[in-house]
Amino acid sequence: MGKLFIPLQVLFMLLGTLFWTDEASAIPPSAITSGQNCLGCHATADNMPGLYKQYSKSAHYEKNVTCIDCHGAQADDPDAFQHYETFISVIVSPRDCQKCHETAVKEFEVSQHAKARELVTTGVGAYFLNNLAGSRHFGDDAKYAAGTNGCLRCHGSEILMDKNGHPTKETWPNSGIGRKNPDGSMGNCASCHETHEFSAAQARRPESCAICHNSEGGDPQIETYSASRHGTTYAAKSGQMNFHSREWVVGENYSAAPTCATCHMSATRDMPATHDIGKRINWSALLQETNSIAVQEKCGLPVGLKYEQPAPASEHRENMEKVCSACHSKMFSGHFFKQYEMEVRLIKEKWLEPGKVLFQLVTEVLQAAEKEKYAFLTHPIDYTWFGMCNTTAKAAHTGAAMMSPGWTEKGNGGFAAAWYSSYIPALKGIIEKYGDSSDKEVEKRVKALREKLNEIMNKKAYSGPWDIKETTPGK
Predict the structure, then answer these.
(1) Residues 318, 359 within the same domain
(2) In the chain, how many domains are there?
(3) What whole-number distance in Å separates Cα of residue 473 and Cα of residue 116?
(4) Structure pTM?
(5) CB–CB of 439/368 below 8 Å?
(6) Are 26 and 9 in contact (CB under 8 A)?
(7) Can you give the residue range of the structural domain that contains 105?
(8) Which of 17, 117, 268, 352 could pair covalently with 156 via S-S, beta carbons 3.0-4.6 A apart?
(9) How far is 338 from 474, CA to CA, in rounded Å?
């Protein structure tokens, strides 16, 4: 007969009931020297019992991974403080998780998720946070309000510590996926594996991605997915997804529908799961033409961008096609990618490239007229073009990438509407405003803008007359 095995946490809790009262914990504070002892307080009504209940459902609990295994610290750690007789840290970083999850952390460290903070602390992001949305010019705590409560919630703050080893109120709580931790590591595993249950099943659901990847933040991925064939199928069949399976291989452990994790991270029959999202087409040459990281170059914005783009590689698309092959034929996926490329080319050639040239020229007019007083994002046309080039373009290419016709048309129609009703009239208004300037430099810049605008708008693609025949693609 085998030995009776009782998890240490269960044994501790059973023993603890012999001593607990409504007034006291099972373990006196002076005796808290191990992870087991934490439960004596934190399972009671006054000390975050919700965390204990989450933890008790986790794989960590089943494997005797204790609170101290994750929160334990050395006395000289930058984020350590003494909690009774034990040094602990509030912040659990990827470096802490790496003790058990080495491969996942190594993959994550080279991913764009781990670099997410850089996207809003350099270039356009830094310009927006520092000068406009909240502002270093405003004063005191409020100057960081927009970033603390907005962008950095997803991208990640730099966690600073006070003299007692506690995180400062301006920088924590923060669960951003590109967070800079006191130990120097970048990232936060709990961004996806939230709560003390640390569930893989939760991270596999598209709802977990929605907190950051949504249209209110400028990236309409969750809305696009939800309005796609994949998303509506998921909504109808989410109960068939087998999320709690240890091996979650599309086409084997589930086949009802794909989620974000299916395509970008999870295992397939011929690829292992990865925490490096860059391995699945995100950073192909195709998407670099329209993605948000390239916004400076794509839009021609007058602010510097320090962030370096990942190098595109052919295997990114090949990896994605392997995902598609779990449910679709090679012909199906090959034709889909061709249709997608057609959309990216349309947005790029009809709207982005000529629009960028015009924006650079009108910026030169404003810079010449306003001289040292010029500031980007203080003119209506700045917002018009930035919204078109960044947000509207994303709607079109994300819609096409996820086979979401409504969002594709939102992008295409939105670009046309903004072009004719807002952008071109704004350009003409600036030409009229500064057309009679006595400043020779302003006069030269206005002339260049006027000539380029006439050249572009006289093309048939923008001025007509247009065809009204029935359109059959490929014919």
Answers:
(1) no
(2) 4
(3) 39
(4) 0.88
(5) yes
(6) no
(7) 91-203
(8) 117
(9) 12
